[in-house]
Amino acid sequence: MHTSVHLFFGTAATTNELNFISKSFSLMKDGTALPENVMLITFTRLHGSKHTFLLRLGHQYAIGEDNILSNTAQVSLSDLFPDYYIMRVSEKTLSGNQSKKIWDENKMKWNHEHDDSNEPLNDDKDFLDSFVISLKPLQIRTFEVQVRPLGAK
Amino acid sequence: MSVNWGFYHSFVKSGSTTISAQPQGGDSMAGAGQCLAGYFDWEGDERKWLQDTSESMQNSGAYIFRPSTPSESLTVLFPYTSRKRMYQSALVTEVHTELSTWVKQVVRLFRNTPYFEIEYTVGPVPVANSGKEVIMRYSTNIDNKRIFFTDSNGRDFLRRKLSHRDTWELDEYEPIAGNFYPVNTAIYIEDAKRSLAILTDRSQGGSSLIEGSIDLMVQRRTKADDFRGVDEPLDETDKGINPYPPYGDRKRLGKGVIMNGSSRIVFGGGEAGAKLSRSNMDKVFSPGKDTCCAFC
User: Fold this and answer.
1) What pLDDT does A22 receive?
2) Pick the CATH number of B2-285 from 3.40.190.10, 1.10.10.10, 3.30.413.10, 2.70.98.30
3) Is residue A53's pLDDT more than 50?
């Protein structure tokens, strides 16, 4: 509704093979798809770099809104880059300009009765091995992803 | 389900100098002075101001929605049956309807799509006799028990109950205006068997004033100021306004604006309102990404 699709037309004889860079492509590895409750919010190249992407993923449901879709969702980031090796993934704050880890460390520490020091917001045990991330209901997470094309050194 | 169009008459304090759409120079300033006095009056005894409508000071205006009487019944607009048209193709069916002379509606059904769409064109709202608060009412037989849900800027859904507040005892003096809530992306009602969700393309006021209904405010045009600081009626026109005194007469130019918007309507099974809304609302506001640019 707010950004309608732009259509471009060209004219050529129907026998001519048009020189598209690729005729179709999917952002996902063959046979994979984002979970039904996860939305790709941002997918863009960062600061002119060819191989660094800013990625935001959001969980679309709140707690209790659906028996299945309100559960925590798992996304394997490697499914999102079918033609690349993932070199490095770092989580950013929502605006994408600070490291989430540093921001967490510098966050104000409040004295209150509820001890939440043992409750990490994000429980990503397999994160470094397989780049699987989890999204809690309505959570939006931001990542900077550095990749290398398959086959390149 | 049926969709009705209608309006409430905007409240204007009887006998007061309403700041008309075409004020006559100094008169408008006199009107403003009187309004200001009224403002202080009602602050002293808010309850009396709310109860005693004959003495009430509060006009409907840019900030305040207030029908002419607290329980005014909706003035329903009727469609011109002679101007109803249907268009069909393999993918889309459209029904075009005209109501009164200033409301046009297109209902669109798409093949293999979970929602249908209503596009409306409203305006210029005629205000010769009174200001108008135009709403659309979707009526169903859903047994929602006075409860409806509106979103909080696309994140949480908040449970609303007619003339009820969770944290205090409410004496409701404005059963219409007091039950309209902000709707940013979606509003839904549901019961054990059915759900209805409406996804909006803009922020609107929404309510469920009648059992099984969803009301969405579409357009407002008032003839009086509501004493909240703008010192002019909510009366947008397509050619703007002359400068304020002393440089001009601040006369409104042109006709009332015509606005155009659309809503998507989704039906579902029991207690599925949140799911209906969630599965469609992000498509309304971000319908696709130009991801190919990232790879080319």
Assistant:
1) 62
2) 2.70.98.30
3) yes
Residue A128: phi, psi to the nearest 5? -70, -30
Distances (CA, A) of B161 to B155, B177, B196, B206, B213: 19, 14, 16, 12, 13
Q: Is A140 exposed, middle or buried (0-12, 13-18, 19+ CB in 10 A)?
A: middle
Q: Which CATH number fits domain A38-107+123-149: 3.20.190.10, 2.60.40.1360, 3.65.10.10, 2.60.200.30?
A: 2.60.40.1360
CB B120 within 8 A of CB B262: yes
CB contact under 8 A, A69 and B295: no
Residue A149: closest C-alpha in chain B: B295
User: Under an 8 A CB cutoff, do B155 and A21 touch?
Assistant: no
- Domain ranges within chain A, ordered by starting residue: 38-107+123-149
Strands B132-139 and B115-122, by their bridges, are unpaired
Does A2 contact chain B (CB < 8 Å)? yes
Higher pLDDT residue, B40 or B203?
A: B203
pTM for the model: 0.80
Are the C-beta atoms of B19 and B231 separated by less than 8 Å? yes
Question: Which pLDDT band, with edges at 50, 70 and 90, does B67 fall under?
Answer: very high
Whether A35 and A73 have beta carbons less than 8 Å apart is answered as yes
Torsion from C-alpha of B193, B203, A39, A71, nearest 10 degrees? -40
Residue range A107-152, pLDDT digits in tens: 888 877 776 655 555 555 546 567 889 999 999 999 999 998 887 6
Interface test with A, best of B113, B271, B275 (most A CBs within 10 A): B275
Q: What are phi and psi of B178, to 5 degrees?
A: -75, -5
| pLDDT at residue number B92 | 95
With 80 as the cut, is the pLDDT of residue B15 above it? no
pLDDT of residue B83: 82
Task: Map residue A56 onto helix, strand or coil.
Answer: strand
> Looking at CA atoms only, how far is residue B29 from chain A in angstroms?
41
B195 vs A contacts (CB less than 8 Å): none
Distances in whole angstroms, Cα of residue B244 to Cα of each of A114, B36, B102, B226, B256? 58, 19, 30, 18, 19
| pLDDT score at A82 | 84
pLDDT exceeds cutoff 60 at B33: no
- CB-nearest to B291 from A4, A27, A138 is A27
